[in-house]
Amino acid sequence: MHVIGVDLGATNIKAGVVGESGNVVTRVSLETEADLGPDHVIDRMALSANQARMEADLEWSQVSAVGVGAPGPLNCKQGIVIMAPNLSGWENIHVSEKMQERLQVKTFLENDANAAAFAEYWVGAGTGAACMIQLTLGTGVGGGIVMNGQVWRGPDDCAGELGHVPIRWDGVRCGCGANGCVEAYASATALVRIAQEKLDAGAKSSISDRLRYEPLTAKLVADEAHAGDELALAIYREVGTYLGVAIAGFVNIFNPDKVVISGGMAQAGEILFGPIREEVTARAMAPATDRVEIVPAILADAGVIGAAGCALQRLKEE
Amino acid sequence: MHVIGVDLGATNIKAGVVGESGNVVTRVSLETEADLGPDHVIDRMALSANQARMEADLEWSQVSAVGVGAPGPLNCKQGIVIMAPNLSGWENIHVSEKMQERLQVKTFLENDANAAAFAEYWVGAGTGAACMIQLTLGTGVGGGIVMNGQVWRGPDDCAGELGHVPIRWDGVRCGCGANGCVEAYASATALVRIAQEKLDAGAKSSISDRLRYEPLTAKLVADEAHAGDELALAIYREVGTYLGVAIAGFVNIFNPDKVVISGGMAQAGEILFGPIREEVTARAMAPATDRVEIVPAILADAGVIGAAGCALQRLKEE
C-alpha cells in the first residue's frame, strides 16, 4: 500500500510516495508560486503528487490515498483550509475536494504541525510514546500532540497551539496579540530579538564580528556558542530556560513519554537541550519528570511523511 | 447494574451506591480516622461501602464493582496509592487488593481529582464534551482532563496536574517547589493570601470588620464582594484574571468544549467567572475561544459518582 504525502509551504510544495511502514519511496519539491492564487497552487500540489507517483513507477490505482499537510486554521474532516495567512487568497479553500477532482484519489487534509508531529511519532524521535508532545521552533513555535497513536485535534481542529501558552502573563507581546506566550520567548525570531537586545546594550561577543557580513540568525548564534562565545551561550541558555518553563507545564499536564523539538534550532544540541532539561527537572513533578525524554526531531521529511501517515490512518478508520 | 463509589478524603470517607446512569441511590459519610493508619482507614472504607450497599437494599452479588477515589500519586492499574501526603502512613498501599480482600468485589482505584472530573463529564456540567478540562479550586488547584469520554491519566497516572502550570516563570513560590504555578495565584489559599496582603497594605474594606469575629476565607471575601465591597471585588477580579491566563493556555492546547470549575470558590459566580471569560477571550485563539464554555461544576457528590463511574467504565473495558 502506498500513500502520497503533500506538504504545502509558503515557498515550496514537497511531495513524496510513502510506504505503509513510513518509508519515503520518492520525493519531489516544486515552488509554491503562491502569488498566483489557490487554484494554481492546488494545480502545483497535484503536479507534485503526480511527479512523485511517476518517479516511484506507480499507477494511480496503486495509490491508496493522498494526504495534504497545510497551515491552519483548517477543518480536517471537511478538508477545508479556513485561512492561511502566508498564502494569498486562501480563505475557505476546499483542498481535499479540489485535489480529488484533479487526481481521482481520496484526499485527506491535516494541519502541517500536527502532520509533522505524527511523522515523528510514527517513524521518528517519538516512536512508541503513549503521549508525545512536539514543539517546532521557527518563525513561530508550532505544536502537536499525539496520544495513544492519534493526533489530538480538538473539536475545531485547532488544538495543539503550544506556542501560545503563556509563561509570563505580563510578558513580551506575541504575534497572536496576547502577552507572554512561549512563542514570544523561544521561537527563532525571539532568539534573534533577544540576541539583538543584548548586542544593542553593548555586550561583547564574537557575534558582532560576523554581523558585518551576514544577518543575525539563530544558526549564527548557535555557531558562535559552539565556538565558545559567552554571550551566544547565554542566549541559548536563556531561550532554553523559557522552553523549559513551558515544557514543565506540558509535563505536568500530559505526563508525556517524549517531548520532541524540531526546527533548525533543535540542531543546536546541548546548548539548548541542557537548559531545557534542567528547567523541566527543577519545575515539573517527579514521576512525570523521570518519565519524559526531551529529544530533537530526527526526520528530514516529517511534513510529507506525516501528511501521508495521517491519511493512511484516516483511510483505515473509514 | 450498581457500582459503589468511595471517596477517600483526609477528614471524611464518603460512599454511595451509584446506578448505571450515574444516579446516586444511597450515600453515607464516615470520619476517616486517618491517624489510626492505612489498614484502619481501609476498614472504614469497606464499612462505608457496606453501609451504602445495605441502605440500598442490595446483596453484594448485585454490586458489580467498587471504585475508590484517592489522593495521589497513585498507580491506577495496580490499585496502589504511592503516597498520600495528608494521610499518615500511606506509602505504597495496595488499596484495590485490600478492598477486594474485605468485600470480595472487584475494586478499581482512581485519582480523586480525575474521578471528580469524570463525574462532571458523565452526569454534570461537562456532559457531551469531546474535551473537558476541570479545575478544582481549594487548598490547592486540582485538575482533570476528559477526552473522548476517557480520563487522560498519562503513562504514570500523573497527568492532569493543571494547578502546576506556570503562568509567571519568576512568580510566587508554589507548594510544589516551582515558581509561578497557577495554584500559587488562584487556589482558595492564594486568594486569602492576596486578600491579606492588600489588607496589610492598608486597603479599606468591609472585610476588615468581619475579621474581628471570623477567619479570612475565600467565602468571606465572596460574600463581601456580592455586598458590593470594592476591595473584595478587586480580589476576585485579580484571581479570576490569573485563572483566565491559565485557562487561555488550556484552550490553545486542547480546544476544549467545556472548562469546569469546581470547589467552594466556583460558587462565587460572575465575580469570578466574568474576569475568567474576559481574560480567556482576550488571550486565546478565536475558533477555540468561540467553542469553549467556562462553567461551574454542578455535582454535590462528584467524588463518589466519579469513583463509581470510572470503575464502571474500566469494568466494561476488561
Write the layout of secondary structure elements.
2 copies of one chain form a homodimer.
Chain A: E1 2-8, E2 12-19, E3 24-31, H1 38-55, E4 63-70, E5 74-75, E6 80-83, E7 91-94, H2 95-103, E8 107-111, H3 112-123, E9 131-137, E10 141-147, E11 150-151, H4 183-186, H5 188-200, H6 206-210, H7 218-226, H8 230-254, E12 258-262, H9 270-283, H10 286-291, E13 293-296, H11 302-317
Parallel strand pairs in A: 1-4, 4-8, 9-12, 12-13
Antiparallel strand pairs in A: 1-2, 2-3, 5-6, 6-7, 9-10, 10-11
Helix pairs in contact in A: 1-2, 3-11, 5-8, 7-8, 8-9
Describe this structure in words.
2 copies of one chain form a homodimer. Chain A has 318 residues and is an alpha/beta fold. Chain A has 2 domains: 2-117 and 301-317, ATPase, nucleotide binding domain (Nucleotidyltransferase, domain 5); 128-296, 2-Layer Sandwich (Nucleotidyltransferase, domain 5), CATH 3.30.420. Helix content of chain A is 41%, strand content 22%. The first copy, chain A, contains 11 helices and 13 strands. Chain A has helices at residues 38-55, 95-103, 112-123, 183-186, 188-200, 206-210, 218-226, 230-254, 270-283, 286-291, 302-317, and strands spanning 2-8, 12-19, 24-31, 63-70, 74-75, 80-83, 91-94, 107-111, 131-137, 141-147, 150-151, 258-262, 293-296. In chain A, strands 3-2-1-4-8 form a 5-stranded mixed sheet, sandwiched between helices. A 5-stranded mixed sheet of chain A has the order 11-10-9-12-13, with helices on both faces. A 3-stranded antiparallel sheet of chain A has the order 5-6-7. In chain A, helix 1 (38-55) packs across helix 2 (95-103) and helix 5 runs antiparallel to helix 8 (230-254). The two termini of chain A are 16 Å apart. The model of chain A has no long low-confidence stretch (mean pLDDT 97). The interface between A and B is large, with 49 and 48 residues.
